[in-house]
Amino acid sequence: MKKSELSNLSVAELQNKLGELKKSYMELKMAHTISPIANPLQLRTLRREVARVATEISKR
């Protein structure tokens, strides 16, 4: 998600989004631990999205 898309969401929506992103990140990380995933850069992009949403929540 882009920064402009995040600024349009409410705090409750951001918290839900953060929970979903963290869950998908952990699942992908576990899948990568068991057997390497095809595109390991997905881990980096998900981790950065989690950080973007968390930063937006803390700004408010």
From TrEMBL:
<dbReference type="InterPro" id="IPR001854">
    <property type="entry name" value="Ribosomal_uL29"/>
</dbReference>
<dbReference type="InterPro" id="IPR018254">
    <property type="entry name" value="Ribosomal_uL29_CS"/>
</dbReference>
<dbReference type="GO" id="GO:0005840">
    <property type="term" value="C:ribosome"/>
</dbReference>
<dbReference type="InterPro" id="IPR036049">
    <property type="entry name" value="Ribosomal_uL29_sf"/>
</dbReference>
<protein>
    <recommendedName>
        <fullName>Large ribosomal subunit protein uL29</fullName>
    </recommendedName>
</protein>
<dbReference type="Pfam" id="PF00831">
    <property type="entry name" value="Ribosomal_L29"/>
</dbReference>
<keyword id="KW-0689">Ribosomal protein</keyword>
<keyword id="KW-0687">Ribonucleoprotein</keyword>
<comment type="similarity">
    <text>Belongs to the universal ribosomal protein uL29 family.</text>
</comment>
